[in-house]
Amino acid sequence: MSWIDKVRNSIPFIVKRETPENLWYKCPQCGAMTFLKEFEENQSVCPKCQFHARIGADKRFDQIFDSGVHTPLPAPAVREDPLKFRDTKRYVDRLKAARTATGETDALLNAKGEIEGRRAVVGVQDFAFMGGSMGLAVGAAFVAGVEAAIAEKAPYIIFTAAGGARMQEGILSLMQMPKTTVAIQMLREAGLPYIVVMTDPTTGGVTASYAMLGDVQLAEPGALIGFAGQRVIEQTIREKLPEGFQRSEYLLDHGMLDMVTHRHQLRETLAKLIAYLVPEAIAA
Amino acid sequence: MTFLDFEKPIAELNARVAELRETADAGAIDIEQQVASLEAKADKMLRDTYAKLTPWQKTQVARHAQRPHLRDYIAGFVADFMPLAGDRAFADDKAIIGGLGRIGERRVMVIGHEKGDDTATRLKHNFGMAKPEGYRKAIRLMELADRFRLPVVTLVDTSGAFPGVQAEERGQAEAIARSTETCLQLGVPLIAAIVGEGGSGGAVALAAANRVLMFEHAVYSVISPEGCASILWRTAEKAADAADAMKVTAQDLLKLGVVDRIVPEPLGGAHRAPAVAIAALGAALGEEIDALVALDTATVRQQRRAKFLAVG
Question: Hey, what CATH topology would domain B59-310 get?
Fold first, then answer.
């Protein structure tokens, strides 16, 4: 809301003007205003500064698959709230709120379809669902995604986004690190590629397991990627963090990624990688 | 010995016993009976306290400065230990120590976190918080063991992997992910024991094992109780509540199927009778190795993978 609207709205006798704020996207990086429609047509990337906004599974599938055509894969059922966890709120209530807000059952969704005519199974982690956090549901969905890829003789492509493990599931969330790693080993033994696209943000136990084990590692520009959180590191070393620390470009410089790829080029980059990596005999 | 906060009443009783003894030694009066009764009282109090430690109290026991550390276990039950150093890429991280040795008659590779036990050694071992080079050393040693068919024993005792700029720069996350992957790839048995603190990814990187043992008062969790509390309760003061909610104890983890066997500790915790605790762990590890050593490469790998796929 601009200052003039604030003044206007605070004066009781002036009729409140309904500002069509939802028609505009304000870039959190450069502040530029873009028509929402234009912003979305630009794959949720700011046309002025190329800031890549966080997107969920639906938009990602639409952007990645040929003409957006894809078949969603069912989310495997898991035990809910295995620890009967409660902090200031009950975990079941947090889950309910996240489900209402996102319309999804948990933070990782899979779909199959084609990318430039080549079969692929794609998983997308949605940061909007409890910070994309990895618990039983995410672990089970990851394994299901890999199993679908093996059945389809297709690569598994994962778009990561997570604050880390889901604390409300305690040690069971930590156990998703080895669990998802076993799935990657199964995919590898089936001779199929595992491609990771890291998106903003990818940290904690997710980075320290399946997000760092790709045959090829991609990241979107400017994504925050790391193991430890920046606040924790600052408290440990008691000094300011270097410029660009834990961003995609920094990881590329330090040898942790193969490439940083603009969202506009992701589809063709993935298609090219699949063409190179999936054996012809399998792709046929 | 350092007493923990919740052990204060026991410490007071012990102090009174010591005081009485001094008086008696001075030849004053016969106080044997009084001493015996006080000692019995202190003993009962210790027994009662340790029979129902809360998860947060266990966390403090698991972190006790005088609890045995890796070097004590190695000195206690690993014969002819030959440490091997370095990741062949950057440095030798002394937060993780590993090498060849024998447990009983069996040749093994032993790898674990070392926290250190005074200021100088704590600094040397970085408080048991490993950097990427530590995990890469562990990977190297596990692969070496695999080539020469040596069972691998890991002893986990870390508050977590080191959170620092250089650690991030050198790929802390990648090193942990690869270490976990290597655990799961081994064709030889891997037996892990959570001996103190099992802190998050830095712990699981050495503990994706065929069998996971845990000391009676050790803790193992996805994040420290303080860390969990400061995120979910917005204050580290609520660490005790977080420890309760997260289910961090050996007894809870056995029920959840994350831990396979609990190794009992002497009364009042491993730090009260280190030799007893060390011997108990050595014996338990020996039995576990014996039970797995006959398995062929494919079976041992399959068993481990099936176990982690089934978690949930």
Answer: 2-enoyl-CoA Hydratase; Chain A, domain 1 (3.90.226)
Domain ranges of chain A: 1-53, 54-283
* B135 touching chain A per CB within 8 A: no
Regarding the domain with residue range A54-283, which homologous superfamily does it belong to in the CATH classification?
Answer: 2-enoyl-CoA Hydratase; Chain A, domain 1 (3.90.226.10)
For B159, phi then psi, to 5°, come to -75, -15
Is the pTM value of this prediction over 0.90? yes
Cα–Cα distances in angstroms (integers) from residue A43 to residues A22, A58, A218, A262, B292, in the given order: 17, 12, 18, 10, 53
- Regions of chain B with pLDDT less than 70: 25-29
Q: Where are the domains of chain B?
A: 5-52, 59-310
Q: Which residues of B touch A87 (CB under 8 A)?
A: 232-233, 241-242, 245
C-alpha distances out from residue B219 to A74, A165, B183, B191, B247, Å: 36, 18, 21, 17, 9
pLDDT in tens, B60-105: 999 999 999 999 999 999 999 999 999 999 999 999 999 999 999 9
CA A247, CA A251: separation in Å to the nearest integer?
6
Q: Which helix (H) or strand (E) segment is B132 a member of?
A: helix B132-147
Residue A195: phi, psi to the nearest 5?
-115, 130
Assign A157 to helix, strand or coil.
Answer: strand
Dist. CA B100–CA A271, nearest whole Å: 47
For residue A72, what are the β-bridge partners?
A: A111
State whether A209 and B248 contact (CB < 8 Å): no
| pLDDT tens for each residue of B25-34 | 666 667 788 8
Asked if residue A10 has pLDDT above 80, the reply is no
Q: In Å, how far are A234, B123, B142, B201, B242 from B222, measured between CA atoms?
A: 21, 25, 24, 7, 11
Under a CB-based contact definition with an 8 Å cutoff, are residues B3 and B63 in contact?
no
- Residue in B90, B139, B168, B248 to test binding to A, most A beta-carbons within 10 Å: B168
Q: Is B200 left (phi over 0), alpha (psi -120 to 50) or beta?
A: left
Beta-bridge partner residues of B249:
B219
